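Q: What would this chain look like folded?
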Amino acid sequence: MSNPLSTSATPQAPEPQQAGAQQGANALAGPSQSAGSVGKSAASIPAPTNAQTVTALRHFSAIEQELSELMKDPDLGKTDMRSKVIDGMTRLVSEGLVPASGAVRDLGTFPERPYDQSVWVNKHFMNTVMAQVSILAHHQAGAATGQNVEPDSTADPDDHQSIIAGLTARYGAGQ
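A: My prediction, written as structure tokens:
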């Protein structure tokens, strides 16, 4: 749920080896974008540093955990899950992983009908998994091509939102 539900707060890492592959947003973010729609090629974007990669993975992991809990619920697709999504977003906001304004904005994208809610949760889960793979692949590709991806600093959980905002700007997410 990144801004748990915002594409603007989640980096969309380019897939270094597959142009046009779908890129992940955050789990409760909007639909993913293709690499072509991000506006920058993987070759022109420096690979994320170790600290940035760790922060992105922490972000995506928290979103994935919230979505996984929703997916395990036998009522998903049968009854309204809005209150459970709000609870999950509230946890992400309280942990400093998502700004409150982004959570409110993203909750606006949550559908009314239970079946559509199930589709929404599953889509965001897949986007989150793809985002994890993409950020790791870009970090690995950077290391393989000699870019300095070593820690320039350690990943500071207190600086989570600013690091995510920097990655979002780097990858042009939300454009």
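The CA atoms of residues 92 and 98 lie 6 Å apart.
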